Amino acid sequence: MTRSTIVELAKAAGVSPTTVSHAFSGRRYVDPETKARIVALADKMGYRANPRARRLRTGGAGIIALASSMPFAVAAGPARLGFLMEIAAAAAVTALSRHLALCLVPPLEPDSNLDALEVDGAIIVEPMVEDRLLEFFSSRGVPVVSIGRAPGREDIPSVDIQSTATARLMLEHLGANSRRVGLITGEQRRNSYIETEAAYAAFTAERGYSPVALRVDESGGEPEAAAAAERLLRNNPDIDALCVPVDAFARGVLDAARLLDRPVPQGLRLATRYDGMRAKLATPQLTAVNLHLDQVAEAAIDLLIAAMEGKEPQPHAIAPPQLVVRESSAA
Question: Taking every annotated instance into account, which residue ranges of this chain make up the domain HTH lacI-type (predicted)?
Fold first, then answer.
């Protein structure tokens, strides 16, 4: 069967070829009823948008990058199915629906060569202060947006992942049935750590006790978090709950608790941020937070497309974070 052309489809739909192009690219507004009619006719007539022709018209590669400076030790998780991978999967689906291909840039060593990357735009997941990946793309004039605000870079459009609200959810849940709550975050300065530490400082002030907080180098992963948690708990035996936003660090805390004969949750209650495989496969299962990463990824793709086209971004409503209570924080 011979595929119909864009001109034939436009004639059948009673619109211009330009309107058909916009209906499939999503880059200009098309009346929803008109778009639905075009899509239905395209399916019936066997029309498919030509990606090569689109690239020739736009001059772009039709590829966007998703990258993070978080090491695999914290970003990927069991079988590489972690925070970064869940965002990547959702972002790839959304990108394809917008006629773009997604290139996943794996966590890299400091001396890695990025010059081979030729993309039309980039999404940086939770950049840190002076993030190398963010600086690489923005210095080359590549449109960049971030998932989570980029510290010190108010010029970078971002999708708010509601870190303060997420921290308050975990802290208030733990604080409801604990004498004293401690905190373990990452040493690298990412906005989620900064907001969580601020929320924790306010939380402890409200309850009238001194904060007990540690930062762990992300590259150390679970083993370094286990050693840090062991020190914290030995030095502060009255701590009976820990808020540990990084799920890899939370798994390390479980190891430390076993070593110290502080069973979770009877001797130590525990909550983490990301409700992924680490939280679900842990023993006991970890209380975590549904961050609605599918919505976050879709918002980031649309924010990047707006930046690539020099348009004002349309607001995206992302559901509030939801606490998923499991055995690790049982009262």
Answer: 4-58
Domains and CATH numbers, the chain: 6-49 (1.10.260.40), 63-161+292-320 (3.40.50.2300), 163-290+323-329 (3.40.50.2300)
With tokens 């735009």, the residue in question is 121
- SS3 category, 256: helix
Cα-based distances in Å from 215 to 62, 129, 151, 252: 40, 15, 17, 13
- In terms of C-beta density within 10 A (0-12 exposed, 13-18 middle, 19 or more buried), how is residue 193 classed? buried
Say if residues 222 and 230 touch (Cβ distance below 8 Å): no
Q: Are 160 and 195 in contact (CB under 8 A)?
A: no
pTM for the full predicted model: 0.80
Q: How far is CA 308 from the centre of its chain?
A: 20
pLDDT digits (tens, 9 = 90+) for 235-268: 999 999 999 999 999 999 999 999 999 999 999 9
Which H or E run contains 29? none
Segment holding 183, helix H or strand E: strand 181-186
